[in-house]
Amino acid sequence: MLVLRRKIGESVVIGNNIQVQILGIEGDQIKLGFVAPKDVQVLRQELYQEIVAENMAAKEQTGQLQQEQILNLLKNYRST
């Protein structure tokens, strides 16, 4: 992990096109500003983790539905 010290108003650049600027410090919170292309999604980690969990749950549910649908098709095919 790279650790940098920055003052309010200073920035760091990630790659060629992402800039992170320190906007303010209030107590134990740091206010960050991000400049990035529109196709780069910037999310808080806890929100990202929620999205990953929801996607995994949807994937599992979809897999179960597909398996049930296949079994139903086989049952219907055998009964005809």
UniProtKB/TrEMBL annotation:
Task: Specify where it is mainly localized.
Answer: cytoplasm
Q: Name one GO cellular component term.
A: cytosol
The organism sits in which domain of life?
Answer: Bacteria
- Is Cell cycle there in the keyword field? no
Query: SUPFAM superfamilies of this UniProt entry?
Result: CsrA-like
Q: Give the signal peptide, or none.
A: none
The cellular location(s) given in this protein's UniProt record come to:
Cytoplasm
Q: How does it assemble?
A: Homodimer; the beta-strands of each monomer intercalate to form a hydrophobic core, while the alpha-helices form wings that extend away from the core.
What does this protein's UniProt record list under function? A translational regulator that binds mRNA to regulate translation initiation and/or mRNA stability. Usually binds in the 5'-UTR at or near the Shine-Dalgarno sequence preventing ribosome-binding, thus repressing translation. Its main target seems to be the major flagellin gene, while its function is anatagonized by FliW.
Q: Which family does it belong to?
A: Belongs to the CsrA/RsmA family.
| Name of protein | Translational regulator CsrA
Species source reads Paenibacillus stellifer
Its taxonomic placement starts with:
Bacteria, Bacillati, Bacillota, Bacilli, Bacillales
Its gene is csrA
